[in-house]
Design the sequence.
């Protein structure tokens, strides 16, 4: 049984149950590359400041690089007895290069070490997640460009409201994902500060060059308070909050895909490659991918709640409770990335049923507001216009007609202000293209926005 780095104080061996309960190696081993990266920078700084010799530092660096290759090759032995990735690497380093390996931990605590590793790891994951978001945005843009002639019902309260371009609907999600990208970029700023050198909680008596380490590791600056450096998990919580909002957007989109792919809507059809069947009903084609995305949103929310709960009552500085940050953080990262990876290719091959969307946009009196606006332009107050068109809709329901079916005489029965041009005004094309204000659904407005988007995502 390997000695613990803190075993000098203890007279009894750690109970096996405690070793297993206390260990984090099963999940924090994914930090190995970042742990080695941080240790190399620390060793070089110690040599620069004369705390250890340059040859000693070179030996440490060489040993760490060899360990990284061992882990990559699957030859490294992980054990609960060594608790975490930091102890596992340090123990292996001492086996490889001897007692000089023990000098690596000079002027360092596992408290600032783990804070460093998680920040290094999260930086990389944020960048990868942003790339996945950008791929999804490009997919949405491509679909929008291909379907500029597609008109669908826009909804409020899940009731047909006004006609919109399908492309305009898709680009609403582009805007959501744009905010997600920006949130992650802003979160990155607070992740990208360097805690190494804070020690266990009080700083270090050694002559450390923290600015050197920050530069070596690509951080914007070192942290400013040693207590906060080792006890801060705000950056994990903030990331999980951003991830939760991103998953909420994916879930809302998934809900629409699920509705649209039902026979009741039949606006889209998901590819067989991204659908599953039933074990009992031969005719079924189930939208399992968006359903799973919708379901996995809950676990990401749960991880955020778990982290907030872990941190809410902790006194300064480090407490073992904080070991619980990693599984929640790692699971959120893995879940969001998995969802983003499957979402883009699923959308890219879905079939858009334009005729069904158009037919749905024709029904349900979606251009009633346009008829009211027609009267407004004749000088009638909008509230009166609203009432007039309400009566017209009630009449159409009673006579089983659409607004487009009414004769001019019937229109004039509701208001003498109506003329023959009302027919053109209440077409779905006219309705869509009348909404030319910035951010509206008119074809020329959507085309302009697509041009702006193409410049944004280059």
Sequence:
């Amino acid at each position: 049984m390997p000695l613990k780095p803190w075993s000098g104080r203890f007279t009894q061996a750690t109970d096996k149950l405690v070793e297993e309960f206390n260990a984090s190696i099963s999940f924090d081993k994914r930090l190995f590359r970042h742990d080695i990266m941080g240790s190399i920078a620390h060793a070089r700084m110690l040599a620069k400041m004369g705390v250890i010799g340059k040859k000693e530092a070179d030996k440490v660096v060489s040993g760490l690089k060899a360990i990284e290759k061992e882990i990559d090759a699957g030859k490294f032995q992980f054990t609960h007895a060594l608790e975490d990735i930091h102890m596992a690497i340090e123990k292996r380093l001492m086996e490889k290069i001897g007692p000089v390996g023990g000098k690596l931990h000079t002027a360092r605590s596992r408290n600032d070490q783990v804070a460093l590793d998680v920040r290094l790891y999260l930086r990389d994951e944020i960048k990868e997640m942003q790339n996945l978001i950008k791929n999804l945005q490009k997919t949405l843009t491509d679909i929008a460009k291909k379907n500029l002639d597609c008109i669908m019902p826009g909804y409020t309260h899940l009731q047909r409201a006004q006609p919109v371009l399908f492309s305009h609907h898709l680009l609403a999600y582009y805007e959501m994902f744009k905010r997600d990208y920006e949130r992650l970029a802003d979160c990155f700023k607070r992740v990208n500060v360097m805690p190494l050198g804070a020690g266990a909680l009080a700083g270090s008596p050694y002559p450390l060059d923290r600015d050197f380490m920050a530069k070596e590791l690509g951080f914007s600056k070192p942290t400013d308070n040693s207590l906060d450096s080792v006890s801060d998990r705000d950056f994990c919580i903030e990331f999980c909050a951003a991830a939760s909002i991103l998953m909420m957007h994916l879930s809302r989109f998934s809900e629409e895909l699920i509705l649209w792919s039902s026979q009741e809507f039949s606006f889209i059809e998901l590819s067989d490659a991204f659908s599953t069947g039933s074990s009992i009903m031969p005719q079924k084609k189930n939208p399992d991918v968006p359903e799973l995305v919708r379901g996995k949103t809950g676990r990401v929310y749960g991880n955020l709640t778990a982290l907030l709960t872990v941190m809410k009552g902790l006194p300064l500085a480090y407490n073992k409770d904080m070991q619980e940050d990693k599984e929640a953080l790692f699971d959120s990262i893995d879940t969001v990335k998995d969802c983003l990876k499957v979402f883009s290719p699923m959308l890219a091959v879905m079939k858009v049923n334009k005729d069904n969307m158009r037919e749905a946009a024709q029904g349900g009196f979606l251009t009633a507001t346009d008829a009211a606006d027609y009267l407004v332009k004749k000088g009638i107050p909008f509230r009166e216009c609203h009432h007039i068109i309400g009566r017209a809709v009630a009449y159409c329901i009673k006579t089983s007609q659409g607004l487009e079916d009414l004769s001019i005489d019937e229109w004039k029965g509701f208001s003498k202000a109506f003329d023959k041009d009302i027919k053109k005004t209440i077409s779905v094309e006219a309705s869509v293209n009348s909404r030319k204000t910035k951010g509206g659904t008119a074809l020329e407005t959507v085309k302009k926005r697509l041009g702006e988007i193409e410049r944004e995502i280059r």
The mean pLDDT is 95.
